[in-house]
Prior knowledge:
Layout: E1 6-11, H1 15-26, E2 31-35, H2 42-45, E3 49-50, E4 53-54, E5 59-60, H3 64-82, E6 87-89, E7 91-95, H4 99-108, H5 112-115, E8 118-119, E9 134-137, E10 141-143, H6 145-158, E11 162-164, E12 172-175, E13 178-181, E14 184-191, E15 211-219, E16 227-231, E17 233-239, E18 242-246, H7 260-273, E19 279-288, E20 297-300, E21 307-311, H8 317-334
Parallel strand pairs: 1-2, 1-14, 2-11, 7-16, 14-21
Antiparallel strand pairs: 3-10, 4-5, 6-10, 7-9, 8-9, 12-13, 13-14, 15-18, 15-19, 16-17, 17-18, 20-21
Helix pairs in contact: 1-8, 3-8
Amino acid sequence: xxxxxxxxxxxxxxxxxxxxxxxxxxxxxxxxxxxxxxxxxxxxxxxxxxxxxxxxxxxxxxxxxxxxxxxxxxxxxxxxxxxxxxxxxxxxxxxxxxxxxxxxxxxxxxxxxxxxxxxxxxxxxxxxxxxxxxxxxxxxxxxxxxxxxxxxxxxxxxxxxxxxxxxxxxxxxxxxxxxxxxxxxxxxxxxxxxxxxxxxxxxxxxxxxxxxxxxxxxxxxxxxxxxxxxxxxxxxxxxxxxxxxxxxxxxxxxxxxxxxxxxxxxxxxxxxxxxxxxxxxxxxxxxxxxxxxxxxxxxxxxxxxxxxxxxxxxxxxxxxxxxxxxxxxxxxxxxxxxxxxxxxxxxxxxxxxxxx
Length: 356
């Protein structure tokens, strides 16, 4: 066996893998990150939007203030590290789809936890079909995830901390208390493999419920680039007059390729939202690693010591990842307990012993 070279092996270089790498580096821990280098991962396709309010029921996200604070602090660190701006604070202007949504909103406003994020005085744009009215969401925005991921990968490659390689779980072996991967050995392994978790023999027993999402890029002049527009779909500014439009939610799918049906679904909703002309530039798709209870999964494998999972970020990846990465890093390095909502232990009854 080779001599121990790194504290941690991180498998997967999407949002989760990079966030845990950032926390380990801050803690002075050595690591190696292994990634397949896929261009169509959900981390790269997603708009990187963060929103304190979730879904048609307009519920406030779990630990939302802590999540937003951690997101802000982490990207200040990232921006100082790389000398670029990645995080964009932008109010969401959301149009009601019908009278019921407007009435439900009025009831939610009575809750302080909800109303703290609402700008009820927001007015509709001429570019937006809004016959039932609109409201604004504060504390929202987006992260330039594709650019940030590319910059972080370049940094890690230059530091000798990233290897592009198609993973094979047969290459990971336990030698006593140490994990062995090729000529490298590690005290800990952290699996951050996104939707590929279903092919991971160590964690494929977890109740993942994968969700395919498709997005469009359009060219549309006349929109306010400082706002996110939302009604059935969202429009997030990219550059110049380019906007990302998304996203579909498909639970039964054959592959990760964009489809004509997904495109038509987006266009139908977009045409109900926009009053301005636009041109389609591109069409992409990715698979989100969502879970049965819609909460992330963090923690140690039930029977393999020092093998950890960081997955299931789903549709709220960029909002949750900074806080949860710090939470998991502290758990690994200092043995602090995990929040029950995200602790892998909540699914231990799903696990049965196997060759892995």
